Amino acid sequence: MFATMISRSFGRATALAAFIPLTLAACQAGSPPEEPSAEAPMAAETPAPDFTLGSENTHNRWSSTIPPQLTVPSGAVVEAFTKEASDGQITEATTAEDLLTVNFDLIHALTGPIYVEGASPGDLLAVTLHEIEVQGWGWAGIFPGFGFLPEEFTGPFIRGFPMEPGATEVPFNDDITIPLAPFAGVMGVAPDTDSMLVTIPPRTNGGNMDNRHMIAGTTVYFPVQVEGALFSIGDTHAAQGDGEVSGSAIEAPMRIVFEVDVMENTRGMVEPQYESDDYYAVTGFATTIDEAARKATRYMIDYLVAEHGLTPEEAYVLCSIAGDMKISETVDVPHMLVSMHMPKGIFREG
Q1: Tens of pLDDT along 94-123?
Q2: Residue 171 has pLDDT above 50, yes or no
Q3: For a tag on the chain, would you pick the N or C end, based on fewer CB atoms within 10 A?
Q4: CA nearest to 128, candidates 241, 264, 231
Q5: Within 10 Å of residue 130's Cβ, how many Cβ atoms?
Q6: How many distinct helices (H) and strands (E) make up the chain?
Q7: What is the mean pLDDT of residues 224-237?
Q8: How many CB atoms lie within 10 A of CB 280?
Q9: End-to-end alpha carbon distance in the chain
Q10: CA-to-CA dists, residue 328 to 86, 186, 188, 209, 296, angstroms
Q11: CB–CB of 328/342 below 8 Å?
């Protein structure tokens, strides 16, 4: 597995600790209640950051010409602070009518880029997300002409979500409470172009994937396209459903601690893939959900053949009976993103 490869290649106990639960002896009868049981593995501690990058170090385009704001070695642990998606245009005082004047050219202030020493085109950049913490007030809304049902929801709408740093849930109304599962909607490396590409759609470099499963405890693999990778992160979401159908999540600023490791791209990965302790996952983007789903299926077949020794036919059938296909996002035109998860528990070596 890639998590094991990171540990062997770089000898970083912190990367492996995020994935291997600590085996504990069973509690004896009469043990004090505060002692852990065999069924309650101890959580891995977040490693201390080697570097910090503040939210003033931002950009909102993808390009190989954007200069790095930080240079780090492979294996570095970085603490990064992000802005909410509108780059400060939307505040607690914003009304629904104010959404009509939001400048979309400023959308997605990304913290970075970060130059990772030793990363070259053809490599992978493994980004292990150790901690993601909400930093304050967030919002969700509807922008006319944007979202999965733009013809049906034609008026602006906004709802604010007061949150304290480190919040774990937030009320939607008097009867509904939303558990928070913060993640970065946009993560990626610089594409091999000097054009200034907008951040709205996902691409081969990652970008606006809006994948709510890329939470703390996940490692995301990005195919490197330029020297130093030039990794950036932002568009942080406190909570989101698969698909992000209205066009927004709970958009909020975050503090993120992550580790960057340069790896060989032994399988020729061309789009981001990711894994947690529980599953391995692939992503596929396309202009239709159908084609994105086909790409994700093909990528998972490739993974199963290369990593688990299956024939293509066996892998295809396993995708059908054990794979979990997810519509990650539907609104970031012109591309949509589909992911497929494969549970690790079905493999004896896992």
Answers
A1: 999 999 999 999 999 999 999 999 999 999
A2: yes
A3: C
A4: 231
A5: 24
A6: 4, 20
A7: 98
A8: 23
A9: 9
A10: 21, 13, 16, 7, 11
A11: no
From CA 329, how far away is CA 335, in angstroms rounded? 9
pLDDT at 180 over 50: yes
Residue bearing tokens 């759609």: 201
Q: b or e along 307-329 (b: 16 or more beta carbons within 10 Å of the residue's beta carbon)?
A: ebebeeeebbebbeeebebbbbb
Decide if pLDDT at 28 tops 50: no
DSSP string covering 23-81: P-PPPPTT--TTSPPTTSPPPPPPPPPSEEE-TTSEE-SB-TTSPPSEEE-TT-EEEEE
Residue the block writes with tokens 């008026």: 155
List the alpha helices (DSSP H) in the chain. 2-10, 13-17, 289-308, 312-322
pTM above 0.90, yes or no: no
pLDDT class of 333 with cuts at 50, 70, 90: confident
Residue with tokens 């993103």: 337
Q: Which of 223, 220, 214, 219 is nearest to 191 (CA)?
A: 223
